[in-house]
From TrEMBL:
This is Aspartyl-tRNA synthetase. It comes from the Bacteria. Keywords: Signal. Residues 1-21 form the signal peptide. InterPro entries: DUF6503.
Amino acid sequence: MKRFYIALLATSLFHINGMKAQQTADQVLNKAIAFHDPNGNWRSLNTTFKVVMTTPERPTRTSTIKVDFPHNTFNLNVEQGGDTYTYNIKGNACTITLNGSENISKADAEKFRLDCKRGIFMKNYYTYLYGLPMKLKDPGTHLDPKVQKKAFKGKEYLVLKVTYDAEVGTDDWYFYFDPKNYALEVYQFYHDESKNDGEYILLEGLEEINGIKMPKTRAWYVNKDNKYLGTDTLQNISK
């Protein structure tokens, strides 16, 4: 009988310790932010960096991005296939140039998809992806409190699920963190998870920009068939 109570006590203590060891989603996210942005520099970011995108059967696209959060400005300069276009956004004001001219024909605007709505989209695109995981603290972001443990490409991860207010985004996202140092190494999104649609993105290497550890490369794949879509390579040009 004594052995039974000792065994029961040991089991109870193990369960309690296991509960203590189980982290919340907020705790995992905070540790990930501490890894990527240890000095809290993201919100005051004022820097310039370059992203080189390679995709199958398309010319290389080089994007130079300048962000100045304190002054609410964003500049994107894109070079691809011998053409260059820019978006300059300051507050609600937006200007666009194509090959150095603001006089853009309707045909060229359609060909290059040049309009201010697209410019705002690109601003949100770049500041969201390179602002992860810090951007998961933004309003309209809903962090599932449960921390999942998943294996992906042969490695175990701590995984956070995130959904958004409808005006922010309609996709379901999963973020995969290294359980040792909390580095973000994979993210994945679905339009409809039951259909296994959407994409996953593999992150490799780190590039430090203004004290923030950003992914050096991002390789994009389709969830359904693992089709390779392209790779973004980050270059710090503000050193």
